Amino acid sequence: FIGRRYLPREPDDQGTGGVFRAAVELARAQQHLGHEVWLTAIAPQSWWREWHGVKLVALREAWWAPIYSKRYLIDLRTHIPMLKFCHDQNFEVVHGHEYPYLRFVPARLRVAHVHNNPFWTENTPQHWYYQIPAFRVLHRHSEVRIAVSAYVADQLQRGDRALTGRCASGQQLDEPRVVH
Description:
Elements: H1 18-32, E1 38-43, E2 47-51, E3 54-60, E4 66-68, E5 73-75, H2 79-89, E6 93-97, E7 109-114, H3 132-140, E8 144-147, H4 150-163, E9 178-179
Parallel strand pairs: 1-3, 6-7, 7-8, 8-9
Antiparallel strand pairs: 2-3, 4-5
């Protein structure tokens, strides 16, 4: 799952960014090994097609899903379509590229693929998940975290060390599992 990133219908012919290229090449390699692979993103309109054996699926955003409270905006426009799609397909593994919020995702294994510094401090909506409380959610709701570089792996391990012991609910956290 690549979140709100651009999902081209013709990946060989259309320009793409680095996150998509990493996701599509990994998907193609997994398909080559005999796995059934789906690559999904949120888009203005729903569509799907098959590309080199990989199913490309654009999910329409849930325009009705932002929830406003007095202090916060909880934006589920991306998460709800992804949850429904994963529930309908009954996936064994869900791999989120730059989409680390895998809470409630029905899969046996949830993989968060981190392409940037997880402790980014810029206070903009697209970087909300890089803050410590959300990093705690990432830690709780992904069984595996993959880093694209040694630097990002070190940052993930730094966050895991900060979270070792007991979390806010008193639950014992697992040992860090970061793959580089």
